[in-house]
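Interim report, section 4.2 (structural modelling).
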Amino acid sequence: MSTFEVSPVASSSSGEQAYRVVNDFSIQVATVNGSGSQTANNVLMRSIFQMGIPVSGKNLFPSNIAGLPTWFTIRANKNGWIARKKEIGFLIAMNPETAREDVLNLEPGAAVVYDEPLKLNQLRTDLHFYPVPFDKLVAPVCPDAKLRKLVRNMIYDGVAGQLLGIDFDEIHKALYKQFGKRKAKAADLNWNAVLAGRQFAAEHLPKTDPFRVERMDKTSGKIIIDGNAAAALGCVFAGCTVVTWYPITPSSSLVDSMTGYLRRLRTDKETGKATFAVLQAEDELAAVGMVIGASWAGARAMTATSGPGISLMAEFVGLGYYAEVPAVIFDVQRTGPSTGLPTRTMQGDVLSNALLSHGDTRHPLFFPSSPAECFQMAIDAFDFAELFQTPVFVMTDLDLGMNNWMADPFEYPTKPINRGKVLDAEALGKVADFARYRDVDGDGIPYRTLPGTNHPKAAYFTRGSGHNDKAGYSEREDDYINNVDRLSRKFETMRKHVPPPEVSLNPKAKIGIVYYGTSRWAAEECLDQLAREYDLEAASFRLLAYPFTEALSSFIERHERVYVIDQNRDGQLLALMRMELPVELIARLRGIRYYGGMPLDARTLTNEVVSQEGL
Amino acid sequence: MSTVTATPPKKLNRIGLDVLPYKGSKTTLCAGCGHNSISERLIEVFFELGVEPWQVAKMSGIGCSSKTPAYFLNQSHGFNSVHGRAPAVSTGALLANKNLKGVVVTGDGDTASIGIGQFVHMLRRNVPLMYIIENNGVYGLTKGQFSATADIGSKQKSGVINEMHPIDCCLLAIELGATMVGRSFSGDKRQLSNLLKAGISHRGLAVIDVISPCVTFNDHEGSTKSYSYVKEHDIPLHEMQYVPYYEEIQVQMEDGQAQDVELHDGSHLRLRAIRGDFDPTNKDVSLAAIHEADKKGEVLTGLLYVQKDRETLHDMLRLVDEPLATLPQSRVRPGPEALEMIMEELR
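Predicted structure of the assembly:
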C-alpha cells in the first residue's frame, strides 16, 4: 500500500480544497548541479524548520562539478519521522532533462511547480500544475545577466512559500542567515527574487493542491547540521591534535569543516599559533601512516576516508593492531571502488573494517546514527583508541555525513580526556620493570611510553607481530601465541567499554529487529508502520558498536525471529553476527537488505518484513 | 712489589653519558655488511655530539637497512614500520612532538620503489629529520633482485644485466625540496661521520644517500655497488671538517680554498674543495655536478646541497612551541561557551 493518499485534482481553479495534507509530505527540487540551487534548497528547508515543523533534507547528487541532474528532497513530518520518504507530494521541476521522468514518477494528486516553457502540464491530467516563467521573472530583479542563473532558483522558494503557506519572515531569516553578514548584497538580490516568486504565485497561481505547512513547536532548541561537520566538532572537542587525510567523497567535508573549526577554536590566543596540525597527505596510505606515527608519539590523531581509502590503509591498520598504536579512522561509507557511485550511500565496509588487514585482526567499530552521536562518538573514539591502544573506526555513511539533519544540540563532554595507560618519567621511576607488551592488569591492555620521555627505562622498539612482551624481536612460537592470546583478552575487555545498544523490548513481540547507523530512522518508522497498519509488534535493538555484547545474544534469545537490517547486498552485519554467535541463535536470524544507494526509507523495510512474515 | 690494575674510567661524553645508551642490540646482518658500518658511525656521532638519546626517534621501513635502528641508540624509541612508509610514520611522529630528533633509516627498495611516493612528498614538505638511505642496489632479504637504484649495465649475481634507468635519490631530493643532501660511502668513516653530524645539526630535511655494499648479493665483479667498484669510482667533492657549536674553530683552512657552511644549531661545516669549484648552496651547480659525474661513471660524494632559509613543515603549520602530543586538556578542549556559540549558529 502507499502512504500517499490521492487527492482529487480540482477541475476548476476555485482555489479551495476540502482535502488538506498538513505537515506530512515531501518536496522534491529537481535541478542541475552547479546552478546554485543548494542555497535555495537549504533556505526552503530551514524556513520550514524555523516554523517548528520537523524536517529532513536529502541531497541526491552526481559525481560531477556542474551540469548533471541533482534532486533535493525535503520531508516535513509532524510526527518527527525524518527518514527519506519515497513518495513526493510537491515537485519543483527545474531541470529540462529529467522533468518528464520526474513528473511521470509522481503519485496522482501531487503538485508540480515547473518552468513554463517545459509545458509539463501536457504530460498528465491527474496532477496539480503550476507553471512559472522563471526567465521572465528573474530579469527585472537581477540586472546582471551573469548572476541570473544563480538567482533564478531563489524564485521557486517564493512560489513554494506562497503555495505551501510558509511564513515569509522565516524565509527572510533563513536566507540572511545562509548568506551571512558579509554577503548582505547578495542576500538582498536573492530576497528580491523570493519576493518576485511570491508575487507571481499570489497573482497567477490559485492553490488547488492539498499540501500545506502550519506552524508547530517541535524543533525548538534543535540545530541543523550534517554528520561530517558534527564529527569534526567532536574531534575538535576530543582534543585531537593531528589530522592527516586525503580527499575522497563523501568524507572530504569532514576535514574541511574541522579545519575551519580548529582555526577558530584551537588557535592559541596569545601566540596565534596552532594547537593542531592538519596535513593533506599524498594518499590514504600515507594519511593513516602519519596517524600511526603521530599516535605512537603521543598525539590524538585521526583521519577521515571512505571505502577505497580504507583499502589502502589495510596494512597500517593491521600494524596498529599488532604494535598497539591508537588511531581514530572515520569511514564515511559509500558504494564501491573507482567510479563506483561515489555519491551514493551504503553501509559497505562493515565486514571488511571489522577484520581489516592480515593475520588475526579485529577492530572496534562505532555506528553513529545522528549528528549528536557523530559528535559524542568522536569524543568516545579517541578515549577508546587510547584506552585500548588500537585503531578504532567510526562508521558513518554518505547519508549521515553529507546530508543536513535536524538534530539535538550537542552536549559538552563531562568526562575528562582519558589518555589510557601511559607511563611518564615519574611513573617509570616507580615501577621495577617496564615491559611494553606485558599484561600487568589482567585486562589484556599493556602500558606504553612515549618517545621523548626522559627516563632510561622508557625506550622500546616498535615492530609488527614478531615480538615478545618486552618488545624484543622474536619469531618464537610461544611468544607469538602469548601475544595474540593477550590481544584476544584485550578485545574481550572492549565489550565492557563499547557504547551500549539501545534496546526496546515489547512483551507481545515475537520478532525483533536489529539495526545500526542511519538505518535507525527508517527502522523506527517501520516499527510504527508495522504496529499501526499490520498490528505486528516488534522489539528493537539498535547496535551502536562492535564488538558485540552479551545484550545482543539475550535479545535474540527472547525472540522467535530477528531481522537484521543492512544497507548492503550481502548482509554484512548479519554475516559478522553469524561468525560470532552460537549456532542455535544463528538459526533465528533473517536479513533485510537494501542496496540501491539511496537513503533508506521505512516503506521498503515494512514491505520486506511483511513479506518475510507472510502477512 | 704488587701492581693494582684499575679498570680504566669509562669515557663520558659532554652530557655525562658513556657510550652504552648509544649502542643497540647485536646486529643480525651479514658480517661485512655496509649497513653495520653506518650503525657504528651513528653510535659514534650521537655519542660524540652528546645528543640526549631519549630525544631521538628512530624510524624505518622494511628490509635489511630497516632492521638497523635496533642496532644503535637503545635508549631511543624506535619504530620498524611498513615497507617504504617510514616517511609517513616519521612525519606523523614529528607532528606529534616537534622536539624529537628524527632519524630515519631506509633502503633503496623502500625509498626508490615502494615508497617513492612518500619519499618525494616528504621532500616537498621539508620534514625536519635526517633521512638515511642505505643504498646497495639490491633487495637483500628476498635474495638479490635488482632495486631501482641499480645502474644500467650492473650485473646481478645470477648474471642478469640491469637495463632499466636508475633512480638517483639525491637528484630527486635536491630538485624536490630537501634542504640538505649528501652522498657518502659506508667505507669512508671520516666523510660519513661529518655528513651525519651535519645532518643532526641541520634544521630541515637532510637526505644522506650512503652507498652501502651488500656482501652477500651485490659485491661481485660486474656490480657497480661493490666495495671495490665504489672505492675506485668514489670522487669526494671536498675535505670536510665539522666543528660543533660548543667548540671554537681551531683549525683555519686556507682562505680561498675553504667554504664555511654555518648550520642551524651554530655548528660549522668547513669544506675544502678537492677538484675545482663546487658551491653546495647553488642548486644548479649541484645538479650539474651530479649529472656530469654520472656521465663519467663517477660516484660523487660529499655535501651535495644545502639550503638554510626554507621553512620546515613545523614552520609552515605554525605549530605552538610545545609538543602537540602532551598539551594539557585546557589547551586542546575548548570551553562550553565555544560549543554553545557553535550550537547557536546552527539553530
